[in-house]
Automatic annotation (TrEMBL):
Keywords: Protein biosynthesis, Transferase. It is an enzyme of class 2 (transferase). Residues 204-303 form the Formyl transferase C-terminal domain. PANTHER family: METHIONYL-TRNA FORMYLTRANSFERASE, METHIONYL-TRNA FORMYLTRANSFERASE, MITOCHONDRIAL. It comes from Paenibacillus protaetiae. This is Methionyl-tRNA formyltransferase. SUPFAM superfamilies: FMT C-terminal domain-like, Formyltransferase. GO terms for molecular function: methionyl-tRNA formyltransferase activity. Residues 1-179 form the Formyl transferase N-terminal domain. The keyword Hydrolase does not apply. It comes from the Bacteria. PROSITE patterns: GART. Its EC number is 2.1.2.9.
Length: 316
């Protein structure tokens, strides 16, 4: 059984570990190209590549998996099965038809809900209480293939995308370990997805990161934790970007019916209490323009932020 593994971020690494620890013959790894990271824009390999190199596995990094060159290079590995986990590109028909056991995907949602590239972030942003992992056969559509197995994972009230990524990553690896023998043995029972129940989780945009203070405190809280620690939610203060990394609905400060959405009600050692469309949100960890992320209480020691200041507006 010759297996090619395709994945890119940290989410995919435990699934690669399972394949190797269970003794499967991983003949190659396909991942995204190295990308610039950080302020210095240092060219950095993706986590899956780093892990593959440690294990001495051949690595392919095509810019476009749809190119003839990429398909040909993959075909040379002669895979019997392709396993993907957060690879980041849609596989063309030529790749889907390569392995005799097909291509399977470890997807971070309970399909058919949250098809697409950002299921984990959007499940938190939308206030879901339960998510999970689905292992599915890959088809030509976006996460439309038949489902083989799945497992539920609760979303805690304080989960961020970072903590939920870690939970689902491990749950997906464990499910892969359970599921592979039935796929290889020909006993796996695949279930078609119900199209009427499908929802989508497209990749996040800059608009998804901008705080709309007219929403409820709970909705904004979910947005902030769904974007942390990757992109971060942001607003504007005096025309400059002001990021919010951590917050919580605030019960000890009463909403002010006369205050505008986004108006600061109180700023003290607890943080920055802000009026929303419904309820008060306490900003706990922030990042003003040109500065590092820090506790709001720390920033307030040297910053002048008084009640009545309004977050939002447009950049200068």
């Amino acid at each position: 059984m010759r297996i090619v593994f395709m994945g890119t971020p940290d989410f995919a690494v435990p699934s690669l570990h399972v394949l190797l620890e269970q003794g499967y013959d991983v003949v190659g790894v396909v991942t995204q190209p190295d990308r610039p990271k950080g302020r210095k824009r240092t060219l950095t390999p993706p986590p899956v590549k780093e892990e593959a190199m440690k294990r001495g596995l051949p690595v392919l990094q095509p810019e476009r998996m749809r190119s003839e060159e990429a398909v040909a290079a993959l075909a040379e590995l002669k895979p019997d099965l392709i396993v993907t986990a957060a690879y980041g590109q849609i596989l063309p028909k030529a790749v889907l038809e390569l392995p005799r056991f097909g291509c399977i995907n470890v997807h971070g949602s309970l399909l058919p809900k949250y098809r697409g590239g950002a299921p984990i972030q959007r499940s938190i942003i939308n206030g879901e209480k339960v998510t999970g992992v689905t292992i599915m056969y890959m088809a030509a559509g976006l996460d439309t293939g038949d489902m083989i197995s799945r497992v539920e994972v609760p979303i805690a009230d304080d989960d961020t995308s970072g903590t939920l990524f870690a939970k689902l990553s491990e749950a997906g690896a464990a499910l892969l370990k359970e599921t592979l023998p039935s796929i290889i043995g020909g006993t796996a029972k695949a279930e078609p997805q119900v199209e009427e129940d499908a929802t989508y989780a497209p990749n996040l945009t800059r608009d998804d990161e901008r705080i709309d203070w007219s929403k409820t405190a709970l909705q904004i809280y979910n947005q902030i934790r769904g974007l942390s620690p990757m992109a971060g939610a942001f607003t504007y203060l005096a025309g400059e970007v002001f990021k919010v990394w951590a917050a919580s609905p605030h019960s000890s400060v009463k909403p002010n019916a006369a205050a505008a959405a986004g108006e600061v009600l109180q700023a003290d050692s607890e943080g920055i209490a802000v009026q929303t469309g419904s309820g008060v949100l306490l900003l706990k960890e922030i990042q003003p323009a040109g500065k590092r992320a820090m506790a709001a209480s720390e920033w307030l020691k040297g910053a002048r932020l008084e009640a009545g200041v309004v977050f939002g507006g447009e950049p200068q």
